[in-house]
Amino acid sequence: MTTTLSLLNHHLSLPLPYLLATTTEGEDYGKALAVSIALVGLSIFIFSRFFEEIAARIGLPSVLGDLIAGLVIGVSGLQIVMLEGGEINPALSHLIEILANSTPEQVQAVFDVPIPIIVEEYAEFGVVVLLFLIGLESDLKELLKVGFQSASVAIVGVTLPFILGFVGLTFIFHIPALPALFAGAALTATSIGITAKVMQDIGVLKSKEGQIILGAAILDDILGIVILAVVISIVETGEIDVFNAIRLILTAAAFMIAAVAMNRFFGPWFITQLEKLKSPNSRGMGSFILFIFLNFLAGVVGLEPILGAFAAGLILGGTKAREDLIDGVGVLSVIFSTVFFVSIGAKTDLSVLNPAIPANREGLIVAGFLIIVAVVGKVAAGFFAFSQEKINRLGIGTGMIPRGEVGLVFAGLGAATGALPPSIDVGIVLMVIATTFLSPPLLRLVFDTSESPAQPVPSDADGSS
Amino acid sequence: MTTTLSLLNHHLSLPLPYLLATTTEGEDYGKALAVSIALVGLSIFIFSRFFEEIAARIGLPSVLGDLIAGLVIGVSGLQIVMLEGGEINPALSHLIEILANSTPEQVQAVFDVPIPIIVEEYAEFGVVVLLFLIGLESDLKELLKVGFQSASVAIVGVTLPFILGFVGLTFIFHIPALPALFAGAALTATSIGITAKVMQDIGVLKSKEGQIILGAAILDDILGIVILAVVISIVETGEIDVFNAIRLILTAAAFMIAAVAMNRFFGPWFITQLEKLKSPNSRGMGSFILFIFLNFLAGVVGLEPILGAFAAGLILGGTKAREDLIDGVGVLSVIFSTVFFVSIGAKTDLSVLNPAIPANREGLIVAGFLIIVAVVGKVAAGFFAFSQEKINRLGIGTGMIPRGEVGLVFAGLGAATGALPPSIDVGIVLMVIATTFLSPPLLRLVFDTSESPAQPVPSDADGSS
After folding, report:
1. Does the distance separating the beta carbons of B38 and A334 come in below 8 Å?
2. Which residue has better confidence, A246 or A45?
């Protein structure tokens, strides 16, 4: 919930004249707000649908469509969704003035205070719901089957980009330690959705390589979310306190270990108890309460709520309610995480990378560096897969490249702390876009024209792992 | 969205010291907010689940459990969820101070501004989603089968309580015209869920009486929502302007007629177009966009967004996507309309009815009057059922008694306008509670020990209508 909170703080600390404007206007102001909320909502959902449709037709993941929709309607584009203040599109303002019979000042006041609070609250709900869903979909049983091979890929694939990113930014680009730490962390987590889809299309999802990638992606979500929770807490306090860092790492690790342990016995027991209740929707609502409770618990111990949300998903992901929960949480996710992804795009100010301005060039170089580390770090990790057999190690590494959703969670939470320079925020978003764009063609390349002989057999046959 | 808006106005017009407090505190304030949001959310969902479970075990509808949960945690009870300002429970404040390491002033500031904005926004989303669902579930084809009989029951059942309520409050209790008009309107709409459940339990749902009741309930939702949309607009402007009232009635009627007409051709065509899209969830998200657009359109023409939400449900309720949409919207409704129902209970200040204070006695008498009109008006309507055969007219009227969800939508929107005296707000909530409590036992009585010979045959046999 830090996202919302920081932004709340941010917006509530706007110049008082705006706050006063919002406190004095009455009915007309109310109608301006109603019309504005509806138009912002329509923009978010219509543009995201449009760009998701284009993404689907050219074989790219939906999340990229949402992100681009955000860029188009946000501060870098049409300026309809302005989450960090600033003047909105005059045509939009004019339209609202006509529809709501209000003044330009009223419309601007609406966009300065309540609109960002409301959009950010929905986006915040979207990100925890998304992590709940990712947790539910993480199949811990599948993971055990490919345990060692996946673990080696995941651990190297998390630490290598993290260290390369942090060290490179600190020593080559002289970026301060905290932003460098954060950018390093943002390079860690793979987004498996994209890879899984492409591997399915070319028929290698059930191959040994496919299974190792799937397992490694689950593990590196877990590692990545632990790193994120710890790094964000450090960035928020503004200093690296070694004892605090160790405490946070231990707490986060304990949280995850408890969640994995509870997946086996507590989860099924909890669902059985809920099924004894007589009121309708007890199973779903009981699970939802557990989810809120763990968000809360994570927050109270000083970690990010998303860690709690993900833990709730892991705990309930081994129960017979799993499929129903995935369906239900999926409905929430499809609506609210769209708001989250669009809001990240909307906040991304591409002008900080305008190469015409000399001062921006370093930002561009940093973004380029992040992209290279993101690709190289994961590809290298593929060569650390434990295996006696000959496997397509290049394919495994390539499959780990896309950062997608989890990378965007990093970008969103990082921007919300307000502690990162804009070039790092934008660099992370560009890194997510680039890795997501790159991986489908690269994957097709390394699996189809593979030199490693063990590979291109059409799946299933060697899918026993 | 009027609910939220009025409350936003209300809260943004709080004394400046609070706003200043919220603008100056930084990190600790942020953590106080995060912890407070989580605790308020947990209270809403845990208490509503607890009272829903009790309601289920004694055969009462869930909505009553939510309402009572709201009374228990709101301004009349534990003062955890305080949506209209006021001091929160000291124990809760103390807990948050400890968990978030913050001051009592910070905690109070959090509960004065952002918490009400956020809870009201979710409640507002809950009410439009609920109306979308009610619209989807309104089976217009079933309605046609029992057309005339249901129509006569519905029209009398809407106009009789409306006129009795308005005239009685104006002439007997000398209540001003606007609140009397609103209270009259709140008496109109039947909530069919409760009756349907009881009739199913005692095996008369498929009887002629059951079918007439179901049809009349759909029709009287339509009539009731039109009346609500018009009356709220009138109450908000603060005066009865005949031309404006006629314009609103015609607009609302046109909206509903268009929705019913579009149910047949536009709805199925729209779904077919969505199915041609390649991006995932196109059907659901396209429907969601139509829903937001109609909320927006209703607001722009001066009506309540709920009218648009209900219209969207009617339009899509005749398509092959209906069942999937009901499932998806049901997930949203079970979460967010719970917030809405609990928030109504939380805002209901029962102290205005404390009989120990003489000034309150008129409020109590008004509440009693509303309950009597609510029961008598609907029971009388049962005798207007068109039918040559002998049917259980008393049973039909009794089946129309419960007000439930739609009555609460009235109460919630009415309270949000700020134009009604508290005794009317509370009177409407008590009327909803009383009619909902009364109808299950009354229904069992009139159907089981019925004197009308045509009735107690065990259903199905005469279910051809």
Report:
1. no
2. A45
Give the C-alpha separation, A39 to B451, whole Å: 57
Q: Which of residues 24-43 of B touch A (CB under 8 A)?
A: 24-27, 29-31, 33-35, 37-39, 41-42
Show which of residues 300-339 on chain A sit within 8 Å of chain B, judged by CB atoms. Answer: 300, 305, 327-328, 331-332, 334-335, 338
The 10 Å CB-count burial string (b at 16+, else e) for B232-268 is bbbbbbeeeeeeebeebeebbeebbeebbebbeebbb
A140/B contact by beta carbon, under 8 A: no
Q: Which of chain B's residues have a Cβ under 8 Å away from the Cβ of A2?
A: 30, 34
pLDDT at A149 over 70: yes
CB contact under 8 A, A331 and B328: yes
Asked if the Cβ–Cβ distance from B26 to A9 is below 8 Å, we say yes
pLDDT in tens, B161-202: 999 999 999 999 888 888 898 899 889 888 776 677 777 777
Q: What residues does CATH 1.20.1530.20 cover in chain B? A: 121-462
Residue-wise pLDDT tens digits, A193-247: 667 777 777 777 778 888 888 788 878 878 888 888 888 888 877 777 788 888 8
> Testing the interface with B: which of A29, A58, A281 to mutate, by most B Cβ within 10 A?
A281
The beta-carbon neighbor of A288 closest among B39, B45, B300 is: B45
pTM of the full predicted structure?
Answer: 0.84
In chain A, list all ranges with CATH 1.20.1530.20. Answer: 123-462
CATH of A123-462, one of 1.10.10.10, 1.20.1530.20, 1.20.1050.10, 3.30.460.90: 1.20.1530.20
ipTM (interface predicted TM): 0.84
Cβ contact A1–B37 (<8 Å): yes
Q: Which of A45, A113, A279 sits opposite B55 (nearest CB)?
A: A279
A418 at the B interface (CB within 8 A)?
A: no
Residue B203, token pair as written in the block = 């095996």
- Please give the pLDDT value at position B21: 37
Query: Tens digits of per-residue pLDDT, B127-155?
Result: 899 889 988 988 787 777 777 788 888 89
pLDDT tens sequence across A263-290: 989 999 999 999 999 998 999 999 999 9
Beta bridge partners of B85: B83
How far the first Cα of chain A sits from its last, in Å, is 40
The architecture of the domain spanning B121-462 is Up-down Bundle (1.20)
Q: Which pLDDT belongs to residue B142? A: 72
CB contact under 8 A, A22 and B5: no
Least Cα separation, residue A158 to chain B (angstroms) = 30
Closest Cβ–Cβ partner in A49, A285, A300 for B45 = A285
Ranges under pLDDT 50 in chain B: 1-25, 449-465
pLDDT tens per residue, range A62-103:
888 998 999 999 999 999 999 887 889 999 999 999 998 888
Q: Which of A30, A38, A331 sits opposite B9 (nearest CB)?
A: A30
H-assigned helices in B88-145: 90-100, 104-112, 114-137, 140-145
